[in-house]
Write a structure and sequence with these properties.
Layout lengths: L1 H46 L15 H6 L3 H12 L14 E3 L2 E8 L4 E14 L4 E10 L13
Antiparallel strand pairs: 1-2, 2-3, 3-4
Helix pairs in contact: 1-3
Length: 155
């Protein structure tokens, strides 16, 4: 009888260790995706000297149309899809930000000298479907100051 109870405790400890280790792996993978998405969004905005929007619905666009669309929004959407980052808009953006395909974007402009910069927020999404628990942790970054913003988005 004593050996049976000891085996049960050992099994519980092993299962707990596996759950903690798996949770750490899930968090680190999602953190890497969100951090990489934020950095690449910032790079695309800086490279194109601003954020330009598209008139098309990117969720219903064909791959050839997406390749031809050279707006900043389409370039970011294409990268996010290739990364596997979630593009759902069920996120709550900080005040002054607008939700785009899985990320939030805010434009900050200095009216006196027309300099601007953008704030990008991506999210780590962790969910446990059986318990219906979902956590979204924001990761925020800013672009460099742009002296000649060519973007058509007012923010």
């Amino acid at each position: 009888m004593r050996e049976a109870i000891g085996g049960t405790w050992l099994t519980g400890i092993v299962i707990t260790f596996i759950v903690i280790f798996s949770g750490f792996l899930v968090y680190s993978i999602n953190y890497t995706k969100a951090f990489r998405a934020k950095n690449e969004i910032i790079n695309i905005i800086e490279k194109n000297e601003g954020f330009t929007t598209t008139k098309q619905n990117l969720n219903n666009i064909t791959s050839t149309q997406l390749e031809q669309d050279k707006t900043t929004q389409a370039l970011i959407f294409k990268f996010i899809k290739s990364l596997g980052y979630s593009t759902s808009n069920d996120i709550s953006c900080p005040s002054g930000s607008t939700a785009f395909d899985g990320y939030c974007l805010a434009k900050h402009t200095n009216e006196s000298n027309s300099r601007s910069y953008y704030t990008v927020t991506t999210y780590i999404r962790l969910s446990i479907p059986v318990l219906d628990i979902g956590v979204k942790i924001p990761i925020t970054g800013q672009t460099k100051t742009m002296y000649y913003d060519k973007g058509n988005w007012k923010g």
